[in-house]
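Run: sequence + coenzyme A -> complex structure.
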Amino acid sequence: MITIRDEKIADVAAREALLDEAYGAARFGKPSERLREGRLPANGLSLVAAEGGHVIGTVRLWQVTAGPEQPALLLGPLAVHPKHRNRGIGSALMRRAIARSRLAGHRAILLVGDASYYSHFGFSAAATGALWMPGRYERDRLLALELRPGALAGARGLIGATGQLAPKPDLNLLIAKSGDSWRPSAHKLVKRAA
Ligand SMILES: CC(C)(COP(=O)(O)OP(=O)(O)OC[C@H]1O[C@@H](n2cnc3c(N)ncnc32)[C@H](O)[C@@H]1OP(=O)(O)O)[C@@H](O)C(=O)NCCC(=O)NCCS
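>> structure
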């Protein structure tokens, strides 16, 4: 049986493998990644599809601002394992993600993707004409779904990241964990941390 549930810390490795399989290394060069890196996903909006204990689908949403004023979410990446495609799992993840976002009071969802797929869930480029992403992308792939009518009316400008910053790893702890053999002198440590 397939279940759609919240992502857990234990899912991270499987989720990364799934994204590598679906998108390859190119995923790190996407404009959406510029809005995700160093941030945490929006609360309660990291979902996985699982079957028999295995993660076979993933979707996350991130807090952004659409232009300087309108708060919104950015959806992505969405991926389903190649062996499990065309079983409705992508659609189930999308519908749950949209329902959760609406329930949490979010106003609009943005994404960069194929309109032929995302139009099934109400996404279009109608409200994104005056918005832009950081980096290179095809303009007609910047899509939006208003969760509240008019949420993106007048939205204009750069889409920016507003999500909570991800905690940075503790440098001293990392060095301590990797053993004494190459531990730098205190003098070098200060230099590295600067
Ligand atoms: C896109 C993706 C998440 C769909 O997952 P899925 O579980 O197979 O989706 P569903 O089973 O809910 O829907 C399948 C339908 O979507 C269609 N579809 C899949 N990818 C599509 C795309 N990029 N554009 C248009 N339609 C698409 C399928 O042809 C199928 O159509 P049908 O129902 O008429 O047969 C999955 O194919 C995936 O992970 N792809 C890799 C990432 C990617 O290419 N994303 C492109 C979108 S930006």
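>> summary
The longest strand covers residues 54-66. Residues 12 and 55 are 10 Å apart (CA to CA).
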